[in-house]
Amino acid sequence: MSLDGFSMSALARELADALTGGRIDKINQPNKQSIVLSVRQPGENLLLYINTNASNPSAHLIENAPENPAEPPTFVMLLRKQLETGRIAAVRQEGRDRIIHLDIDVIAGGGRITTRTLTLELIGKYSNIILHEDGIITEALRRIGENTSRVRTVFKGIPYTLPPVQDKYDLFTADIADIITRIQSDSEAKLFQALIGSVLGFGPISAKEICFLAGLAPNISVSELDAADFAEISHALNELRTWMKEPVPSLRLEENGKVTAMAAFPLSELPNTQRSSYRTLSALMIDADKRLGSYVIPDRERFRRLVRTELARAREKYDKLGAEIAAAENAEEQKIYADNLMTYQYQYSDHADDEITVPNIYSETGETLTIPLDRRIGIIANMQAYYKKYDKLKRAQQLLAVQQEHCMANIRHLESIEASLDSSTRLAEIAEIQDELITSGYLHEKLPKRSKDRRAHPFSFTAPDGSIILVGKNNVQNDTLTFKTATPTDVWLHVRDIPGSHVILRTNGDEPSETSLHLAAQIAAHFSKARGSSNVPVDYTTVRFVKKPSGAVPGFVRFINEKTLFVTEDEDVLAPILAQDPTVG
To answer: Which residues form a coiled coil (predicted)?
Structure first.
């Protein structure tokens, strides 16, 4: 989901008004997909966030810069060298395409002023950021070789070429009658498809909006339209062109808050949807990024994939061990066969039968027992084989049970790491999870050296009565919070049998109020895999009754004297509390 080229024209004008003449003070790269330019204008600093995430590529102004990695990537180092201290001479859109050029004047060797262009190609999964000068590419965020694309290559030292030009009409400059004629010529197409094929920059959102304004179904065939219908389409095109002189950015949302459309003009409200309007395109894009989850924390997805893979392996192993344990439960049957063979061994000849049927010596009612035999060996050898298999299965039962218990411990540990990844929003928190994955043997990398001043801190919330509630974001923080930060009289909370954060309710030695205790339990449910569920069981006890077994993995504890609260998250209660920490989503 992203703006189409038509709506992006309003965004380009907005950025041009804000950034032209500004000096680039700093350039950062929060993750592999985005760049942030800090632009100094008289009396203010502006932040231009350039995002190439395929789900919502965009370039817009933001209020708070994302956190940056400790080591800047190579691409941003090059941009700093090439563009920092330069002034933005122009911000321009390429036709009505989803391409924005930033022309930046910099002082080159010998005091000569030269113009370098940072091109933002915001075209879905092909989005890219390309720096070029005098038509030659200096570097690109994503290099595209001949093996990747036969149509267009992008890498250092070759000429920069634009994507193929589209033969369409520009709504801002073309005669509406010419556009209508082009639509009519595409008689076999659906109306919204004909609009996309006729108007420069139109995507499905803009095209369907014209249909709604004209009172026509987007999927109606052009051949079914009459003169009155085309008159309505002409009126709708004129109305949209007028709106774009003073854009009114809007999002269309489903009832659950999911984004279904975004544009620089007022979108129609369809059944079971709602519309949100914004003062600027940048404000719209900030909200859309939050809703679409466009910002990707470096390494979080990589670690999440690793944990899910390890979890799948561990669960498969657990099931296999369960099957082997079930098979090992037949040990007693092997002993019964052997004992009966010992009793009746002299009544049968060696190598004579594949099986024998005898009265079972363990049956009180005289039932018979059929014993399979290996004819290649004698009766006594068969008896010994059954005793040997019995001993092996008995030993296997014990070993398999230990292995299965260890496997379940690994599953619980991995599930807790998975929950930690969901709660973590800062690079320092992800770094702690990386260290845990390395020390646990799941991630085969060298343990990085960490700066003490970049350590993460737990969530801290203040209840209405002034009580402090602390929440661990990962297993390392959970251990530190429970065994170093908390006092013996503080209350410790955790969702029962479900991965989640350790929660500490500070008491200062006093009895906690029921309101604060219930709030802390809701927070524990919120920061767990049970988030959003109803009647979540949350165990709580004082910290003095929480112990860590020797050799246990991070985050694993045992506790006694617990009580249980069953809670359902109340969004009206939690929202103002969680808003105290801007990183909580």
So the answer is: 304-331
